[in-house]
Amino acid sequence: MHASQGRSAGLGLALASAFAFGGSGVAAKPLIEAGLDPLHVVWLRVAGAALLMLPVAWRHRDLLRRKPALLLGFGLLAVAGVQAFYFASISRIPVGVALLVEYLAPALVLGWVRFVQRRPVTRAAAFGVVLAVGGLACVVQVWSGLSFDLLGLLLALAAACCQVGYFVLSDQGTDEAEPADPVGVIAYGLIVGALVLTAVARPWGMDWAVLGGRATMDEAGVPAWLLLGWIVLIATVFAYVTGVVSVRRLSPQVAGVVACLEAVVATVLAWVLLGEHLGAPQIAGGAVVLVGAFIAQSSTPKAPPSGPVAGGAGDASGTGPATGEGAGPEAAGRDAGLSAGRTAP
Predict the structure, then answer these.
(1) Three-state SS annotation for the chain
(2) Average pLDDT of each block of 10 consecutive residues along the chain (345 residues)?
């Protein structure tokens, strides 16, 4: 009974996290169109969330001594890199398309396993990669010479590459007696990301007046500060925390499926709130991307297996909220990965 209730609560939290993450791009794009540079929006998001997470960082201050490299890499890739490239991409291409491109990350992780770690992968994993790439071809409509801005697509792909780094980092040290607490890693990742983005975005040159005005969301005026509040409080702090808590209550497979809903939520919200309509081939292609991403993700091993083939049925490195896709303290290290990797972002 208690186990069933725990899983139900975990599923509810995972859905809430996917909804929150999926709404970040929809809230950010009107701010960008109102005059804010994409980097400035990213800085506002990360710096605001880092400020709110300072008490958590203080509580886990021992991580600075134990895991400095993990915190630095997580801040640079999973926070600064993913967010910056994602927000830059949505300034040029639809939110749903950008997030679907980013969901190539699980397929790219398989490439890392096969060509960098030089370990064989299962046929199911390879099939997932083929599905994801084929679905993406439908999303961007390659038969018409790419229907979207090429630079925007490349920026979204860069965000996917940063997520790969996040997955690889999240797999480090998970077999230690005291793995890094995922919430602590997220807190310090946000702080590191904020420091890096401060140097890169130079917010002192930002047009702060935009935040006191109104942004346009599908021809309707919305207070800019309200959109920023959603991005910081809901799409970042709430999304990360609920994602980490949820993955501790769910299996990697369930967490991975729920993580894929983030792209669905983002696409639907962009359709309803921003008027970014996708055609039938693109919708079908998006579904194929998500299926392929899930298959690739669930077939990627967390650690070198005892057998000769990577990607056994029980292995998963977690993609979306699945980062922490494990359950219990022993999975805390890799749990930090899944939830936090979400870009959309």
Answers:
(1) CHHHHHHHHHHHHHHHHHHHHHCHHHHHHHHHHCCCCHHHHHHHHHHHHHHHCHHHHHHCCCHHHHCHHHHHHHHHHHHHHHHHHHHHHHCCCCHHHHHHHHCCHHHHHHHHHHHHCCCCECHHHHHHHHHHHHHHHHHCCHHHCCCCCHHHHHHHHHHHHHHHHHHHHHCCCCCCCCCCCHHHHHHHHHHHHHHHHHHHHCHHHCCHHHHHCEEEECCEEEEHHHHHHHHHHHHHHHHHHHHHHHHCCCCHHHHHHHHHHHHHHHHHHHHHHHCCCCCHHHHHHHHHHHHHHHHHHHCCCCCCCCCCCECCCCCCCCCCHHHECCCCHHHHHHHHHHHHHCCCC
(2) 65 82 88 92 95 94 89 88 89 83 74 76 77 77 66 90 74 61 87 93 91 87 93 90 72 57 78 81 82 69 45 35 33 37 47
